[in-house]
Amino acid sequence: MPAAIRQVASLLDRHLNLIAPRGRYYVDRLRAVGLMPNTPGVPEPATAEHIALLLVSAMIGPSPALPSAEYLRLVSDTGGTLLQALERFLAAPQDLFELGLDTISPAALIRFREPNGNIAEESFLPETDMPRSKIRRIAIVDGNAFNALAIAIRTSTIPTRSRRRRRRRIS
After folding, report:
1. How far apart, in whole angstroms, are the C-alpha atoms of residue 141 and residue 56?
2. Which of 5, 6, 136, 145 has the greatest count of CB atoms below 10 A from its CB?
3. Phi and psi at residue 38, in whole multiples of 5°?
4. Alpha-carbon distance 143 to 70, whole Å?
5. Could you give the residue ranges of the DSSP H alpha helices within the chain?
6. Which residues contact 67 (CB under 8 A, 6 or more apart)?
7. Burial class (CB in 10 A: 0-12, 13-18, 19+), 3
8. Which residues pair with 139 in a beta bridge?
9. pTM of the full predicted structure?
10. Cα-to-chain-centroid distance, residue 155
11. Residue 123: beta bridge partners?
């Protein structure tokens, strides 16, 4: 993933139709917790884990009770984690149809195309049984938005630091 973390935040704003500085807010919030590197002045390349953290943070909203790192540790019935599934779909975004997150209690659902062409669902739940609320608030990212986001991240380049132009003084 050649994009910088701040670029991923602005791409999230654009492709998920968020209010413009929202992605930057989530970057700053994740940096304050220590989940993202904080190197002022040097653009850090975003890994798949950083992109997944930002995507989950944008989907669940500003909920301090449920950090986005908890969602990435959710386990499916096949044994994989949500982070591994999102890394797989960032590499091949055309196979994802829908990503849904329960924003009140940690749970996730992914609808995708299998290699043989069938449509499958994979649900992700916490390893320990947690009491679930009867109220559900589900955030959904459809396949078109995810595909456009993944392509934009893949095609963007890291900004380079260049020297400032010097003005010529004419005396």
Report:
1. 10
2. 5
3. -120, 95
4. 23
5. 5-15, 22-33, 48-60, 68-72, 82-91, 143-155
6. 33
7. buried
8. 101
9. 0.83
10. 16
11. 109
Q: Tell how many helices (H) and how many strands (E) occur in the chain.
A: 6, 5
Who contacts 51 (Cβ-Cβ below 8 Å, separation ≥6)? 1, 8, 86, 90, 153
Write out pLDDT tens, residues 93-139: 889 999 999 888 888 999 999 989 899 999 998 887 777 777 778 88
d(CA 76, CA 59): 19
User: Which of 125, 46, 53, 45 shows the shortest CA–CA distance to 86?
Assistant: 53
Instruction: Give the C-alpha separation, 74 to 61, whole Å.
Output: 18
What is d(CA 27, CA 78) in angstroms, rounded to the nearest whole number?
A: 31
Largest CA distance in the chain: 77
